[in-house]
Amino acid sequence: MPSADERCGSQTRSGGECSWPADECPHHQVRDTGPAARAAGKEAHGPREASPVPPGRDLHELAWWLITETVSGKVSPAQGGVIISAMRVLAGLGEPAETEDDRLLTIELNARLMHGFQPANREQWERARQQFTPEALEEFARWPALDQGSRSAETFDP
Q1: Is residue 73 domain-shared with residue 126, that is, in the same domain?
Q2: pLDDT tens digit string along 23-59?
Q3: DSSP symbols for the chain
Q4: In this structure, are 34 and 69 located in the same domain?
Q5: Which is nearest to 140 in space by CA: 155, 15, 148, 153?
Q6: How confident is residue 155, by pLDDT bands cut at 50, 70 and 90?
Q7: Taking residues 66-89, what's their average pLDDT?
Q8: Rg of the chain over all Cα atoms, to the nearest angstrom
Q9: Are residues 103 and 62 in the same domain?
Q10: What is the domain count for the chain?
Q11: Which long-range CB contacts under 8 A does 55-63 form with residues at least 24 apart?
């Protein structure tokens, strides 16, 4: 057990003093770099300034940035853990929908297909190409148009 001078000494959640060695405490960071701390031989420790976080929302890029910064000592393991927890939540959310209008157009297409009608126009065919396999598209082309009288105004060429 380190002596009282070598302990972190920061206040814990329970109100006591942290007993981790000052230079190894994963929970607290010594920030006192004044003359008294230097005279006592205590140097500030903790993460150095990290490089800027990568722009955008690419979780892979953020993960590699975090690994690099943690290994170099610029991000503490505790801070890295917080970032990783947030990344887990973001990954679980999946890809964001572009807009409300985009979601409504996808719902409209899926409703048509669910009721056995082919896409109504070029935009819906393009959306179907993004969402379904070529085999499914060929099947949709065989279905009747909504007007039941003929093929869709926009014919599909698989």
Answers
A1: no
A2: 788 777 654 444 444 445 444 444 457 678 787 778 8
A3: ---TTTB--PBPTTSSB--SBTTT-SS------SHHHHHTT----SPPPPPPPPSSS-HHHHHHHHHHHHHTTSS-HHHHHHHHHHHHHHHHH-SPPS-HHHHHHHHHHHHHHHTT----SHHHHHHHHHHS-HHHHHHHHHSPPTTSSSS-SS----
A4: no
A5: 155
A6: low
A7: 90
A8: 29
A9: no
A10: 3
A11: 57/90, 59/87, 59/90, 59/91, 62/87, 63/87
Query: Are 108 and 135 in a shared domain?
Result: yes
- 76 and 107 belong to one structural domain: no
Q: 140 vs 6, which has greater pLDDT?
A: 140
pTM of the shown model: 0.36
Residue labelled with tokens 């896409």: 119
Same structural domain for residues 78 and 103?
no
- Could you give phi then psi for residue 17, rounded to 5 degrees? -105, 140
pLDDT higher than threshold 50 for residue 85:
yes
Buried b (16+ CB within 10 A) or exposed e, 141-154: bebebeeeeeebee
The first and second tokens of residue 44, run together, are: 């500030």
* Listed residue (95, 125, 87, 96) closest to 108, CA to CA: 125
The range of the structural domain enclosing residue 59 comes to 54-93
Mean pLDDT (the chain) is: 78
